[in-house]
Write a structure and sequence with these properties.
It comes from Pararobbsia silviterrae. This is LysR family transcriptional regulator. Keywords: DNA-binding, Transcription, Transcription regulation. Pfam families: HTH_1, LysR_substrate. The strands form four sheets. Strands 4-3-5-12-6 form a five-stranded mixed beta sheet. Strands 10-7-11 form a three-stranded antiparallel beta sheet. The chain is of the alpha/beta class. The radius of gyration is 31 Å and the shape is rod-shaped. It folds into three domains: 84 residues, Winged helix-like DNA-binding domain superfamily/Winged helix DNA-binding domain (Arc Repressor Mutant, subunit A, Orthogonal Bundle); 98 residues, 3-Layer(aba) Sandwich (D-Maltodextrin-Binding Protein, domain 2), CATH 3.40.190; 99 residues, Periplasmic binding protein-like II (D-Maltodextrin-Binding Protein, domain 2), CATH 3.40.190.
Amino acid sequence: MNLREIDLNLLVVFLEVLDTRGISAAAQNLGLSQPAVSNALARLRTTFDDALFVRTPSGMQPTPLAEQLAGPVSSALAQLQHTLNQRGEAFDPATSTRRFTIAMTDVAEVYFLPDLAPRCAALAPNVRIHIVRSHERTLQNAMADGQIDLAIGANSDFSDSYYQQRLFRQECVTIFRAGHALSHGELTLERFRAASHLWVSESTSPYDRIAHALDKAGIRARASYEVPSFLAVPLIVARSELVATVPRKLADSVATAFGLALARPPVKLPLLQTHTFWHRRFHHDAGHRWLRTTIAEIFAD
């Protein structure tokens, strides 16, 4: 039997007849006419090729097949009703045990989590946050499939199926250890080019626009070392004579902890715009909306 052949409303009638043991009583409880209930029962009998109910002096008695169907049908309809009832309910962060998956880069993780984690712990102690990395080519599919709830970053090529909210714009700055030669005097283009640079080769990220501008200014030619991400950059710079150009939010987050100084590079660099992104299927989800609002309250400029 194909499930498509079964009308959900017929199963509601089935359960009511099973409960009341009568056509008239079932019709009254359902707000239907007796002929309508009789017609529904006839359709069910055709679908299941079984009488389902037999008229006796004590009422409509179920056949063995009807008794076999009773439990699963009742459970399935109850679960469906429960789900429908929950659809419009408010999300309660204080009691929710929901898990949210957020895609972000390592540099975003350094900036966002130190403030997001304690806020979520205070407002939603049982909510779990799972941070993942996702390549731009697979990110949108993962979000559409529900594997990822939110993406945070400077991406710009999301399709019309996604909503976005801008959090902030930021410049890039050059960081170096406190006491470095560049910490004294004006940071001219000549001095900037002469320094030993730590190059971050995140070629598939929005940072590639920054890297392109630095490359045009001749900075890459001065790169003594190259790393694939920002994760170790603050520590490397703090313990060497290398300098690195990084997003301002990252620099501000780590400068004190690593004893770093920072300066605006003497090269015109594009601004990075950081957004939250989410698929439209989650736009009206109460829990999802709470998470987006919480992030915006903390980080939006």
